[in-house]
Amino acid sequence: MTSSVAAGSAARPEPGAEPPLRRNRDFLLLWAGAGFAVLGARITAIAYPLLILWHTGSITGAGLVSTAALLPMLLVQLPAGLLVDRWDRRRLMIVADAGCVLVTATVAVAVWAGAVWVWHLVAVAFVQSSLAIVHQLAERSAVRHLVTPGQLPTALSQNEARQRGAMLLGRPAGGALFELVRWAPFLATTLAHLVSLVSLLLIRRPFQSTAPAGVPGAARTLRADLVEGIGWVWRRRFLRTVMIFIAISNIPFEGLALAVMYVVKQDGGSSTVVGLLAGVSGVGGLLGALGGTWWLRRLDLRAVVVGGLAGWALVMPAMAFTRDVWALGVLFAAMSYIGGVFNVAGGIYLVRITPDALMGRVGAVATLLGSGTNFLGPLLAGYLLAALPVATAVLALSGVMVVLVAVALVSPAVRSVVDTPEGRRLS
């Protein structure tokens, strides 16, 4: 089986034959358009629970809507990965953007009309997140076809910085827009997806090296494609082990985000404060993404994994001992910094080892393993915060990280990766 670099570069010029990234028209269109799509998702990610929490005062209702937005990571990843490998990726992204325009517009209209219904928000949050997964998997698979192999690490690092920048801008913007007028965040998201849609229509180059397997006459079945993608990931012991670690760590991470929102509400803060805290967190993630390659030049994969988990285990419990919003913001920024480094490392590692024909499925399986449990975070946090003091609930959530560090230190899969060609430094 060919390596990802070989598979992705067979039909493209050698490094240096194409313009630098800053003058690569198609990459910039994809980068910017997808950035608007992510920005819209970040705006509504904070607006949905804010709408429920400020409209009804129900922390369990806010947890339910947040859960609906995260549940597609468990249910939609694999079908989305199959679509990305079998059908035209550019067309899939266009359909996803158009769908997001329609569903988020219904929320803007409903809030404007004063007809806020929890189950409507649950349904729209689920659909919007499902379409976003298709969009993100297709974009991740397309990048290697718009840049040279030598540009790929930088392009992926810039993509992660864009994700973190969208968080930096999106969540404060969502909180501020919500404070201004409650339907505004959903209108802003609708417009952001329209911009993304137009950018896709302007891109000239194809998003895959060969005709997608979904064209008429394809002999392979969906089941065979799915088994191939799952089997490829599962045979890579280090990859599946780390994805399971990330899956477990994301439960307290998502739960703590809801806990901070709850603390602000209890202490009489506004939705703008919630957005600003998320923005401070976004600064940390952006710095982590921009500095990710610096760490990867100095650390092997085992050090990145164990060190990142240990950093989270130190920072998370500290959140139980303060209600100062800026201290909470700094702690969240530290956690997001580590997450940014993790995502850069994971993105480069996955693209380097994965053949192009499997990118959609492998990305879906890896994300399913890593993020499929995210929906449990706000669901669990909602019930813990309703039943326990905030400090006790935060300690219960963050204690998971201490256990993960101990497991990672003794894990054979993590310890042995340094002896493999892939386990050495990625940059």
UniProtKB/TrEMBL annotation:
Compartments in which it is found: Cell inner membrane
Regions crossing the membrane: 28-53, 59-82, 94-119, 183-203, 242-264, 276-296, 303-320, 326-351, 358-377, 383-410
Keyword entries, A-Z: Cell membrane, Membrane, Transmembrane, Transmembrane helix, Transport
Cited InterPro entries: MFS_dom, MFS_trans_sf, TM_effector
Coiled coil spans: none
Domain Major facilitator superfamily (MFS) profile residues, every copy: 26-415
Entry membrane topology: Multi-pass membrane protein
The protein, known as: MFS transporter
